[in-house]
């Protein structure tokens, strides 16, 4: 028996496996309770070789497709940015421009959280300017997507794909999502909690 977190009664659990493009086999779960509590989630049902995709961001690659599974880590090393998987992280399919927009949202949130820290605000402003310049094609950055389970991808003719070693794959962070901005950690726990609440 799995108790409902809202009322303690037994939950109804439904699971199914679907074969999806790019993500492979996904285990879809849906839980519900008579009291009205509901939650659904998806998990990769297969593990592939760990992989790293590296792409130069330019005006020509802004629309390259990016497939990020729940185990994928996205980095922009020139700016010290990293989006890492957490307990409520979700997979998504977007393009490079969409990834940059996500980072803009994250850095703007970090800027608000650190409004009293003048140095942090300046650092965020510099990063935001570079991200926006990359979005209009006037700044060249590097996008790296790493996945220890091999379920993520960047789809473009100019992408460099390499298999990661087991040591590299094990070094990837998991658990609480951490946004690392130029050497300073900003925890995105509240963003993850918000995503979790929205999914309910």
Automatic annotation (TrEMBL):
Organism: Geoglobus acetivorans
Residue span(s) of domain Zinc finger ZPR1-type: 2-156
Stated family: Belongs to the ZPR1 family.
Keywords, comma-separated and alphabetical: Metal-binding, Zinc, Zinc-finger
UniProt xrefs under InterPro entries: Znf_ZPR1, ZPR1, ZPR1-like_arc, ZPR1_A/B_dom, ZPR1_jr_dom, ZPR1_Znf1/2
A Pfam family assignment: jr-ZPR1
Organism placement in taxonomy: Archaea, Methanobacteriati, Methanobacteriota, Archaeoglobi, Archaeoglobales
Record-given protein name: ZPR1 zinc finger domain-containing protein
